[in-house]
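Anyone have tokens for LytR/AlgR family response regulator transcription factor? Sequence:
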Amino acid sequence: MENFIPIGGRQTINPQEVISLKGEINYTTVHFQQGKKNVTVATTLKRIEERLEDYPNFFRVSRSVIINMNCIKRIKNNKIYLINGEKVVPSRRRAKDFYGQFESNNRA
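Reply: yep, here.
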């Protein structure tokens, strides 16, 4: 069963298709898997983060980026490489929590 969450206006997304979300002031760009076109909505990253609380695989790695931890290709030299080729550097403040959650997800 697919669960869709509202992201702004009349748009909804399936969180399982999301690779990352990038916020810039009052806009958020959603990056999807499988070649689906990116979507930019007039909704803050914080508001979308609140709607993603039921999905533990999403983690806010910096002030402006949330990633789907199921879409991590590899981690090297404090950089997170996602399956779409994006490279994300976690903030110093959030890095410890991210690596702890990443390790616990990989053990399960």
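The first strand starts at residue 5 and ends at 8.
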